[in-house]
């Protein structure tokens, strides 16, 4: 039987990589549904090539436009449209690759349906980790991480007891600014930040890599995915990006997963698990790999990492506010409205004003998120570039 895959975020870097991997895997996999934002030309090409039966886009006008262009495919829109794609009966695997809070609802709906969720959306667990993992247990959903770091940890823990884990070591490239003097960070440009040395990712994630907020979000994600206390999760700078993460056990053994810097491998692992199918990447040539280095991140250069950890140690409301403020601040930087060096200041200010909150239900996330975004926008106006 052919495995149907719904791709949430099909025109982004993980989405397009998923389509590439599916073509490599061949007839055993087919595209059931696609969700995209506003890249209609790219989505139209995907529809004509992969023939999904259901598609969703961001807005109703775009849905009408796409329906005119692509007869024979049903086109929905908005959060409910994305959720309908995630819930499709023909979607055995849901690739959750929408960046940011927009991916929260359709990912949750896929979990409630008991799907295999290939999770490339960090924010789903940062904002709603307790609800996501509880729903996965109740409904028999599989949560297979697609972030290269969490995919690595998942593989290292296979057959092992999490009770015997001394620490999880998440590796980080350090982004485009890892070797910059902290005193020069106020003046960096968008082009500087988006020039990532090893990974090809979307702009928001690339900025998060430079601030290392991505690693802070990944600490929270790992806490929920693997039921490991926050204090046992460490971050190490690893510029070569070959060791994707490590797990240290109580007996002193350390297991690591190594691979090339391409998301095709974790994407394929999530699609084909527990099988390991022939991949579409070249293996590492260790004769050409002379050095693997690791070091602790510098707190002065990467304050967002500490902000994320502090938020996770405080309350669920703080992790929601952390994500909301970061999304707003990063977009303001990308738009030229906020200096790079003020991203962390905006986030810290929002967290200082956030009350301790333990949510009563999944629906309680929305008002906390909205309030934090409002606070972040006000802070951005105060910090705005002249």
Structure description:
The structure is a single chain. Strand 2, helix 2 and strand 3 form a beta-alpha-beta unit. The chain has three domains: 3-145, Rossmann fold, CATH 3.40.50.720; 148-261 and 288-300, no CATH class; 315-386, Rna Polymerase Sigma Factor, Chain: A, CATH 1.10.1740. The protein has 15 helices and eleven strands. Helix 6 (122-139) packs across helix 13 and helix 10 packs parallel to helix 12. The mean pLDDT is 94. The protein is an alpha/beta fold. The strands form two sheets. A seven-stranded parallel beta sheet has the order 4-3-2-1-5-6-7, with helices on both faces. Strands 9-8-10-11 form a four-stranded mixed beta sheet, covered by helices on one side.
Oligomeric state of the chains in view:
single chain
CATH arch. level architecture of the largest domain: 3-Layer(aba) Sandwich
Give me the CATH fold name of the largest domain.
Rossmann fold
Overall number of structural domains: 3
Gross morphology is globular
The portion of residues forming beta strands comes to: 15-25%
Strands of the widest sheet, in order across it, are 4-3-2-1-5-6-7
Radius of gyration, Cα only, in angstroms?
20 Å
* Alpha plus pi helix count: 15
Q: Mind summarizing the main beta sheet?
A: 7 strands, parallel
User: How far apart are the first and last residues' alpha carbons, in Å?
Assistant: 59 Å
Uncertain spans, ≥5 residues at pLDDT below 50?
A: none
The CATH H-level homologous superfamily of the largest domain: NAD(P)-binding Rossmann-like Domain
Instruction: Tell me the helix content.
Output: 40-55%
The count of DSSP E runs of length 2 or more, i.e. the number of strands, is 11
The helix-strand sequence is EHEHEHEHEHEHEHEHHHEEEHHHHH
Chain-averaged pLDDT: 94
Which class best fits the helix and strand makeup? Answer: alpha/beta
CATH domain class of the largest domain: Alpha Beta
């Amino acid at each position: 039987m052919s495995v149907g895959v719904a791709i949430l975020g099909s025109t982004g870097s993980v989405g397009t990589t998923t389509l590439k991997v599916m073509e490599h895997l061949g007839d055993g996999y087919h595209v059931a549904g696609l969700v995209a934002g506003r890249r209609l030309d790219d989505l139209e090409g995907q529809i004509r090539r992969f023939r999904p039966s259901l598609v969703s886009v961001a807005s109703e006008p775009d849905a009408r436009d796409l329906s005119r262009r692509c007869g024979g495919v049903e086109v929905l829109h908005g959060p409910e449209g994305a959720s309908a794609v995630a819930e499709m009966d023909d979607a055995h695997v849901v690739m959750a690759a929408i960046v940011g809070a927009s991916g929260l609802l359709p990912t949750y709906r896929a979990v409630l349906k008991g799907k295999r969720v290939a999770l490339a959306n960090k924010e789903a667990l940062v904002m709603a980790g307790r609800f996501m993992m509880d729903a996965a247990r109740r409904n028999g959903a599989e949560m297979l991480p697609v972030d290269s770091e969490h995919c690595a940890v998942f593989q290292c823990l296979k057959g092992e007891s999490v009770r015997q884990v001394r620490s999880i070591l998440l590796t980080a490239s350090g982004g485009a600014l890892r070797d910059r003097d902290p005193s020069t960070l106020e003046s960096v440009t968008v082009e500087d930040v988006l020039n990532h040395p090893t990974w090809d990712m979307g702009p928001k994630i690339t900025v998060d890599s430079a601030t290392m907020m991505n690693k802070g979000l990944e600490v929270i994600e790992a806490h929920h995915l693997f039921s490991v206390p926050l204090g046992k999760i460490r971050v190490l700078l690893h510029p070569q990006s070959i060791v994707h993460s490590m797990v240290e056990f109580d007996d002193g053994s350390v297991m690591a997963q190594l691979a090339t810097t391409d998301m095709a491998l974790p994407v394929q692992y999530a699609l084909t698990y527990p099988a390991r199918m022939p991949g579409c990447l070249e293996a590492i040539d260790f004769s050409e790999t002379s050095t693997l280095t690791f070091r602790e991140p510098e707190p002065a250069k990467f304050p967002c990492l500490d902000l994320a950890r502090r938020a996770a140690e405080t309350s669920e409301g703080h992790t929601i506010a952390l994500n909301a403020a970061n999304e707003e601040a990063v977009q303001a930087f990308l738009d030229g409205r906020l200096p790079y060096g003020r991203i962390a200041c905006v986030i810290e200010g929002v967290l200082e004003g956030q009350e301790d909150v333990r949510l009563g239900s999944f629906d309680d996330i929305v008002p906390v998120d909205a309030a934090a975004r409002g606070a972040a926008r006000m802070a951005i106006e105060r910090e705005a570039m002249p």
